[in-house]
Design brief:
This protein is of the alpha+beta class and 98 residues long. It has helices spanning 8-22, 26-45, 90-96; strands at 3-6, 51-52, 60-64, 67-74, 77-85.
């Protein structure tokens, strides 16, 4: 079975998303992380669901509500690079990660 592997930055993104949502709605934060995990599993088994974008350095992106999952296919599924809110300066953030 395919799996999703996470960069340290992606793990940090998940913690930040959880903490931000939990400020007002702890239960919603837990449910949202479950929803994201389901999407990670879906992408691991079907990496072509996302859209590959040159402006994002060839990474694939997949939207989940207001967030974007950035990933690349791997031999064992997908590697999750970042999970970012769509209103952020994505190109600058991804460029700093190189």
């Amino acid at each position: 079975m395919a799996s999703a592997q996470f960069t340290a930055l992606a793990n940090n993104d998940l913690k930040e998303i959880r903490d931000y949502i939990a400020l007002d709605k702890p239960k919603v934060a837990s449910n949202y992380l479950v929803k994201l995990k389901q999407k990670f599993d879906l992408l691991a088994n079907s990496p072509a669901l996302g859209t590959q974008r040159d402006e994002y350095y060839g990474l694939y992106k997949f939207p989940v509500d207001d967030y974007l999952i950035f990933y690349r296919p791997s031999k064992t599924g997908v590697e999750i690079i970042r999970i970012l809110h769509g209103n952020r300066d994505i190109i600058t953030i991804l460029n700093l990660d190189e």
